[in-house]
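Human: I would love a firmer grasp of how sequence relates to backbone shape in proteins. Could you go through the record with me and say what the backbone is doing? Here is the record:
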Amino acid sequence: MTHWGQGRQLFGRERELAEVTSRLLDPGLRGVVLLGAEGIGKSSLAELAAERLSSIMVPYYVCGSPVLSRMQYGILSTYLGSATAAEMESPLAVLRTVRAHFQRLAETSGMQTLLVVDNAQHIDEASAHLLTQLAMSGELRLMVISRARAPRIHELLSLARDGLLARIDLGPLSRHAVHEFCVSVLGGPVLQASSTLLSRMSGGNPLYVKELLTRAQRQQRLLEMNGAWYLGKEPDSLDTSLVDLVKGMLASRNPAERNVLETVALAERLPRSVLSAVSDDDAVRSLLIDGILEILPDRDESVHLVQPLHEQIIRSLVPAARSAEIRARILGRYEPGSLLDTVQPAFLDTPLRYAEWALDCGERLSPEELLAAARAANGMGDAVRGQRFAAAVHLPAFRRAAEVELAVSCAKQGSYARARTHLEALKTGPGEIGTWDQRSLQRAAFTSALMLRQSNADAEEMIALAQRWTDVATGAAVREMASAGTPPGVTAGAGMLAAAALVFKGDYAEARTRLAAIAGDEAEPQSADDVERALIIHGLYAEVLGACGEVGPALQQAQAAANILAGSAGRFRSYSGFVFVRHAFALLHGGRFAQLEQLIAKMHTGPQHLLTVLGGTMGVFEAALEIHRGRLQEGLQRLRPAVEALRDNDPELMLPYALGLAGYASTVVGDGTPAAGFGTQVSAAGYPGPRHLWLTAQAYAAAAEASQSTEGPTSGRLAVLAAEARAAGLRSSEKDILELCLAVGDLTQVGRLAELTADFEGAEAQALHTYAAAVASGNPDRMVAAAEDAIGAQKYLVAVESIGHAIRFYGNHGNLRRQRALIQQLRRRREELAGVTVSYLSPSLHLVRLTRREHEIVALLLSGATTKDIAGHFTLSQRTVEGHVYRIYVKLGISRRADLESAYRALEPGPRSSSLL
């Protein structure tokens, strides 16, 4: 007999585990049938269910295999050792033998028997029939584990339909469960975007996730820095054990079904009508029934493979000649050239896939098709494919446009030196101007502007670029149309670059004026160039307005940019990060935390290739959201991998801000990780980023330093930064800095915070205003009321701070009863306050302060010592110790020892290394 071992872990299966155990205990049932794809976690779930029921059921394990499936009663041979050859010929005699065996086991153990049948898809028909008889007898509980497509267990499935067995279908893990799984396997915090990518690549299959983790580490695409993990590049699965699994799956299908799978894998997606026309419709239907293929909810009823990794692996297994044959068969169902149209497709992915497929098959595309594909791929943010298409353009007449696309591809991959080499064409003399087209000129100008921004160039270089673009574009217009004027789009674009130069300088007031004029003059977009320009103008304007504290108008501009992005059929997807950052900051400063959560969740559903490019940026906002709420520990767990990802790739210049934020959070919660030193690295990041973020980054670093002080508030640096932000008109930065002043215990800024937030839009600012005004008033009732407002705005740390001020007020005025009542209120409402505690406040704001001796006494009490034991330990009288204990109870607002641990952990900061979440 076989007993199951220990050691498996469960992720995201709590509901299914509860269902399995409850069904096994249901007296009206005989057991469960657990169905799911290979690697989905069926065996782990079954083992944990058996372990949970081990006090009332003894589990025995049998496992099917292809070899045993060819033997009569092969899976049950362990229990048939006493059967004679004659008995083996009689199904009834075999049943009696097996029943007798389990009856003896039940008598020996005194508990009910649970027979667990793993890999039941590989059992023989005789075993399946015998298991059905055992289940119907009710003498034992049966747990059958099988893949969904298993014809030989049809009798057992019929028992499920009749209500004797419970059928439980196990689906893929959720994104959150995959993240937990990755954290467990890797042993440290993991970038959320990286686990999302692995979840989507694996289809939520834990076996596939683990294989991808192993492969990515081997490829050095999954990187670890300072104990945190992130994906630098998307991994592949082409030399993992998954290849053998897919080969096995293909071998199990008939030739017609294999043809369908190869066709769909190569095409990525095909309309159902086209797929049925180029392959066998019965085979298509069979694969749909078995859940290997799926119909998408689009107008063409497109078919694709359910498991994303199967697509990649099957494609790699198809020979080039066979691939070309399948491609020709599909193209025969369409008008010539229609599948390569990048102008009016429903999905840009389709023409790009067919262009790539053509190159894979060695076919030649026209330079026009290649250039269009390169522009489309770069516009979608798929720089790798964009580079491949542009590099395939060889005709001299198209080389300049191709060089621009190569530059765009390199810049989007962070290879700025190579991009600069490709853009040397911008410096050609007037004699070569005629070879330019206006679209390539705009793309070259915008790419050059991106490189200037990333290289921390000064404003004059951006202005020079705008002038150069204007001169070259005007010359090209004269050459092409015999017109002496500068194209209107170029004038607007150059004006936009000039406004960006003002942002470089930190002159947000003038930039706002310029952008308002440009946005007001912008006509309805007529071309892709117009749309791209409008998107950038809206995004840049949103950034400036948001930094200046005009949250409502900033959100309007950000939403306008987001609408352009959403309506472009993916053509400008490469601007996703640009729009996301400006939209996210406007939501953050407006205190619209729920909307920000939705925006971040939407980013996680975006194209896979953008999850590696923007993963660090997304992680910063996931963390900033939690830290603005006051949940510093949760924010820090998201920040640590985000910081490391940004060191590798920082398209939106967020690293200094992330370093400051992480340094502050780590210092306050005292987590002891390398993040505690991040605040000191802000100035050494290599670039400041936008001025409003640079000021905020420095403020967080200064707050981290002030939080470590044991001599009261040392926030002079914060006050200087707040004044600098105020002078520059950067009201959002000033708001954040003033909030930090109060967080570190400097109440001299409370009046300015109340004044600033009085007309600042958003729930966060309103909560800060109520809090600051209450503290300034010195009225404890207003402080308690302000805490309620802060809770409503999800500003949990502000709520705790506000109640903390009230507690201190009552303590200073000798009202210990009211003080203890508020302390108890904090403890009772800890869950409502999202785990935020007084331990996060600066030392000057801690209201419950135990002496060193009192800390020592609490430690002994929590270890189980009596007052007599403690008296002996310190050579004190028992009465003296009891007096100490009484004062400790008064300070903690409790009256009995049973409440000591929770009160002490929740309200006393104690050693900095102890996180109280």
